[in-house]
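Fold this: DNA-binding transcriptional regulator YhcF (GntR family)
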Amino acid sequence: MFDESTPIFQQLADRIEQRVLDGTYPEDEQVASTNEFAAFYRINPATAGKAVNLLVDRGILYKRRGVGMFVAAGARDRLSEQRRAAFAAGYVRPLMREAAALGIDLPTLMSLIEQENT
């Protein structure tokens, strides 16, 4: 369910984002309400609300007054772009630095990656 590594609201926001990325929640489609998220995950509605509001602030979800929460147009592309940038910063750049420190040139590094992909 949830772990203690990060706040519950952040973990819920991450799960919703993942569902936007994988197409479970398509753009312009309604997502569960705060109370539905709270009931499903057995968390406080305020915690679920904080997760939803975080995604509204990030432009991933938007509110239709009196109707509910919906996935924003372009949300999937924005999330993909953010994840790619985080991947580059967290994995590719450190990999390149380590390769350089070990004297591994780019063609050799690419060869190593290709070998691991088989």
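The two ends are 33 Å apart (CA to CA). The chain has five helices and two strands.
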